[in-house]
Each structure stands twice: as C-alpha cells, then as structure tokens.
Amino acid sequence: MTLSSSGSFRRLVLGSALGAAVVTGGGTASPAQPPRARRIVLVGLDAADWMAIDPLVAAGKLPAFGRLKASGRTGVMVTTPPLVSPIVWTTIATGRSPEDHGVLDFMVDLPSGGQAPVAASSRRVPALWNFFSEGGRRVAVVGWWATWPAEAVRGTIVSDRVAPQLLRPDAALEAGSISPSGAAARLLPLVVRPDAVSFEDLRRYVPLTRAEYDAAMAALPRASFRLYQDRLAHLAAVVAGTRSHAAMAESLVATAPPGLLAVYLEGIDTVSHLFVRDARRGPPAIEAAYRDADALLARLAAASDPDALLVVCSDHGFQPPSAAASIKEDPADFAGPATAWHRPYGIVAVAEAGVVAGKRPPTLRPGALGAVTPLDIAPTVLHAAGLRVAIEMPGRVIEAMLPPEAAARAVERRPTARLAPSAAPGAPVPGAADEAVLARLRALGYLGAQPTSLARQNLGEILYRRGDLAGAERQLREVVATQPGNLTAHLWLAKTLRGQGRPKDALRVYEQAVRLPGGATDAIVEAMDVAVSAGAAEDGRRLLAGVRPPVEEAALRTARAVLLQAEGEPRRAEEELAAALQADPASFDALSRLMDLMLPAGRAREAMPFARRAAALAPGSPRIVALLGESLLGAGEAAAAERELRRALALAPDATAVSIDLARAQLAQGHPTQAAATLAAVPESTERSVLLGAAASAQGNWREAAMRFESALASGGATADLLNGLGWARFKLGHAAQAAEVLRRSLALNGDQPEIRRLLARIETPARVQ
C-alpha cells in the first residue's frame, strides 16, 4: 500500500461585493458584442489512458483519437488521489474541490442508519448543467456520476441509475431516473439491454465459445449479485450500458442541439478491471472498449455543430498489465481496493467537432496542453462557452484549450448562486435500484464490508494532501473510532500525526495497525521509520519482535534493516535488504533503501542487478524504473540512464525528481540544451538552479550560470561543488576578487581539492604582482 503526499490547495475567498462580477485576465470584450455562445460537447471516458491510446492510434485503430492527437490539443489529466470515480467526476463537473462539493465516496450514510449509493443529493454546489441552464442554454447530460435523482434543468438529464437498473428484462425505470419525466418515453426505446448483446457482439471483445456465451446469457435474469460473478455476463452489461448512453447522447444532440452535452462512459474502466490480468482476453477486450469510445467520439462530432468545442477527458488512467508485479490487489476482487489499479494520469484533449469528424481543418493550432487538473475543466468550459466563471472555482481557465475568440476575451468571474429549489434534489433516500448499483460496485472491488461509507476516510486523505493536517486528523480519528478494523484509516492517521511532528503518537497508531489483519505487512516498515525518528528504537524493536504471521518476508526484513541502520550497522542492514529482495524482487521499500546505502558509497554497479531485476518484473512501476535509471546514472552509464528515466517519466509525467535526474544524465552526456529543456517544466528548487547553472556553464553563458548558482546559494546550503561552479563563472566573467572569495569558501568546506587550489593560486597571482 502506497500513501504519498501532494501539493497544497489554494482556496479562493468570496469578496464583500457579492453581487459584482470580478474580471481577470487579458483582453477586452465590448459590452455591445456579447461573447460567442460556443456549444460544448464534454465526453468523460472513465480510466482512459494515453499509454493505451497511443499504440492503438499508431496502429490506425482509433481514427477519431488520431485526429484529436494530430489536429487538436492534448494533455495529461493529473488527478490527486483518492482516485474514486464519483469524487473526481463531480470535481470535473463542478470545478470545486471534494471537501466543497461534498461527494466523497461511492456510498453515503443515511440519517436513519445504513447506506445508499451516492446520489445527486450529496452534491452541495452547482454543476456545469446548472450554470448553463441559468445562462439560458439547453443542456443534455447522460450517465454522469451522482446525478440521480435527475435535477430539473433547461434540457434533459439521463441519470447514472438508468443503465444498472435495466439489467433484467422485467425491470421498471425508477422515478427520477430521467428529467423531465416526459423525455423517458422518447429515450427508453434506445436502451440496449444486456440480453440483446449478441454472440458476435461479445466475441468482438473476447474470444469465447457458444457455450460460454449461453452461460453468460443464462446468468443475466438472475439476481444482480449473481450476474456479476460471471465476467462475460458482466461484460454484456457493460456493452449494453455503453450502447445505451451512446444512443441517448446521439439522439439528444440530433433532436435539439444543446449548449452543453455531457456524456459519461464507464466501459474502459470496467473492462480493464475485469480483464487486465487476463493475458488471452485482456488485450482484445480493452482494445474493443477504446474502439467503442472512439466510434462514439466520431459520431458525436459528426452530429454536432462543426464549431462546437469537443472536450474529452478521463478521471484517471489505468495501470498496464506490466504493473501486476507491483500491485498486489486483484483488479476485480469483490472486496479488494480496486482503485490501486488507477493511475493518477488520465487524458484531456480538445478540438472543434468538425475537425474530429474530418469535415474541416483546425482553427486551433495543434499542440500540447501539458498538465491539467480536474479543477480546471469547469472554468475552462464555462469561459469557452461565453459564460462567467464562478469565483469559488480554484482551477485555471486553460488558455490553450480555448478557441481564438475565447482566448482573447477576459475571464469574467462572479459569485455562485445557490442551487435553485427546483434543481436541488433533497435529502438522500434509498432507491429501488440500489441493490443493482451495490452489486455492480462490489463486483468492481469498490465496496467491501465496511459498516459505513468511506467518505470520512477519503476526506481525511484529501485534507492531508491539501496540508490541513489538523482537519485530516479529526476525520481519521472518527473513522478509526467507528471502524477499528479499518487498516487504511489507521495508516493515514499515523501519517497525519507524523506530519504534525508527533512521531510518538504516530507510533502508537502504527502499533494498533500492526495487530490488524494484514497490518504487519503494510505498517511495519513505516512504524520502524517513525520509531527511529522519534528516538524510540527500543520500542520499535519490541514491536518488531511481537509481529506474528501472516506477514510478508520482504516487509519484515526491510523493517529489520531500518533498525540495524539506525544502530550503526549498515552492512547487516544491507544483508537484510538483499534478503528482502530475494523474497520479493519488486519491493520498492527494500530496493530504494538498498540503493540509499550503496549509491552514496560509490557502489552503484553493485546495486544495478537488483534494480534491473525489479524493473524487469515491474516495468509499469515508475518508481522502480526510476531507481534503475538512478543506479545507471551513478554507475556512469548516462545514455542508458536517460532511456530508463524517460520511461519513468512517461509513466509519471509530473515526477520532479525523475526530471532532475534526467537533466543530470543529459548533462553527463554533454547535452546542456536538452537538460535546460527538461528543467523548463520543473518547479523552482535549489537542485534545479544548480543544474541550470551547469547547463549555462557548458554553453559558455557565464552570466546566466552565475545568476543560477547565486540563486541556488541563496535558497539552499552551500556545497563545495556549488561554490566551485559559482567561482568559475565569476572568474570567466572577469570578477577575480569575487571568484577568489567563493573558492576560499569551497576549500574551507573541503580542503582536499587540489584543482581548486591551483585555480585559486592562478586567480590570486596577478593580484599579488600588481
């Protein structure tokens, strides 16, 4: 289990002039010329991932995506965990953070006790369809998460409850599934039921026999939880749901073109969960899911106004089959944390509909969008449509996603009105279709046996990642109190306490976690880290001695190594780590700690076999691939290191440390221009300044080099290498006295530098002669 932190969240505060619009950004707009009302087609593809799309585009199998890549603008959706679909899709639809919009889990706790699937009533803020309706624009929403019961809007909402409840031939449509209710008569004939999915339809996804197909069809009339025990029956339900949403979306566009069409497809995510580990059926099934999405993009683009802006995004990506060695969870386990298979890197793309349909050349110049977050989609869509952006939305209006007239227009912000009483769905209540929805979520591994929802746990994780550690602690303590067997909540609580500088409190929580089922494996290494940092190694030793099976050998040996290193026995620690890697060659904890011992000691070549074996077993793990690149760099194999570091960056595009190492590898090969380009997207830091200084020095740009080295010196501690670089740059600029002063400081830190002594003597000699 991996728990990682991310950057802080900036909240925009509403000013005192509540009724006034706030205007920001460049450009001007004449009051006599209202903004152009671009239609928006927003397509949400759950778990879509460029890692899967790009090879299929290259093979000519995804023509619509191919046009998006060639003639549109594409980027990476970088999503901060927890990577839970209703949370992220609601963030995309509202432009608000989860703690503000209120959708925090697949389930909600009912005031009367028990649970129900998350519903529209959980959402506390307006969504895009509310803003468009308020602005006088028609909307059409199909299948979006947390839209039941469907709100009253200017247009049509087909809620997320339609597909799950129509699995059985005799199922009736639940009230509130479609708004307005009169639209149901026109849309329901478009529903494709699972039993209408033919043998040939299913064989397009996976190889199967007629007997297997007949067994799947026989499972469909059963109770829904029995249906999901048959993967092929589940696949038939997914295909039927995808076709139903697609047909409804196409009909709504053709009947009365809306100002906003928002359609959601779950197929890629579910098919990936069901088949990613199936070497025979997985590749064709996942490819077919992408081809269905591609075909819908093409049809929607062709049916839409050619000037409409087509925005395609996903909430996250999906780990490739090669990640199996580093992910223990079963992606289709009925009670397992299946979100472990979600990558925090999804897709975002934008182009005019006529371009994607192949009807016209692009107005937007093709290019890269870089990193986009779920918070950025709603403000960008609103501005592109000529609507004002809510001042409470913390995301950016991504200028590169805008058509020319919107990019030239100032961003207008205004306070958000409350949801109108006619739109607000009211208090959460159980629905008739709940059992079908619950069965589907259990089958995908999104629900376990928790007595309450995981909303508080997810909120605790969200607040931790925002930097609100006290708020996170409050939420997580409540979860631990009500769910004492919840291991994940214990781990997050311990991490939160550790982040507040309370290691002994954290250690007590880790002690509880270690005693939980499976807790020793997940908690023991972190517990030893905390014990050592708290000066409580003896407590750590007692805790380690008390660990009882089952516990993975790699975790146990890595924990021992932590204590041995703290006790000043690095050789014995190294032996334990090597044994841990013998037990689990893809253990990141063991490998990273072994390299921390070997690389500073100049033993990178000894570390390389461990790193190579781990990367061969887990080629989809960016952390492990990056460690291989680091070991190669330490061994002086800069070209090979660059290859591996680029591969790690393809897996984790926002990994700053990997970009830093890549720039080092490029400098080591004498490629300063490439190194500078790599560092251009890296946030400011001492390391970045040092490397940019080195790149400028290699190019003979001494003024730039001196500036970068001085910036590094001001922001971080002085090192001999940094002082030497600055001294040389000042010498080359003709500032001899300043160069001499800096080099003396370097020699004071490390007197064993004969070349620097010679350089200093060379600088000082002319001064003595004068």
Q: Beta fraction of the residues? A: 5-15%
Please state the average pLDDT score. 88
Structural class: alpha/beta
- Read across the widest sheet, the strand sequence of neighbours is 8-7-6-9-2-10-13-3-14
* Multimerization state: single chain
Helix content: 40-55%
Tally the beta strands: 16
Uncertain runs with pLDDT below 50, 5 residues or more? 1-32, 420-428, 444-449
Q: Tell me the distance between the termini.
A: 67 Å
- Based on CA inertia axes, which overall geometry fits? globular
Q: Number of DSSP helices?
A: 36
Main beta sheet strand tally, sense and closure: 9 strands, mixed
Radius of gyration: 29 Å
Salient structural properties:
single chain; 770 residues; alpha/beta; nine-stranded mixed beta sheet; three-stranded mixed beta sheet
Give an overview of the whole structure.
This protein has 770 residues and is α/β, with parallel strands linked by helices. The chain has 36 helices and 16 strands. The strands form 4 sheets. The chain has a 9-stranded mixed beta sheet, sandwiched between helices. Helix 20 (487-499) runs antiparallel to helix 21, helix 25 runs antiparallel to helix 26 (588-598) and helix 26 packs parallel to helix 28. The longest helix is centred in the N-terminal third of the chain and has 25 residues, at 231-255. It is globular.
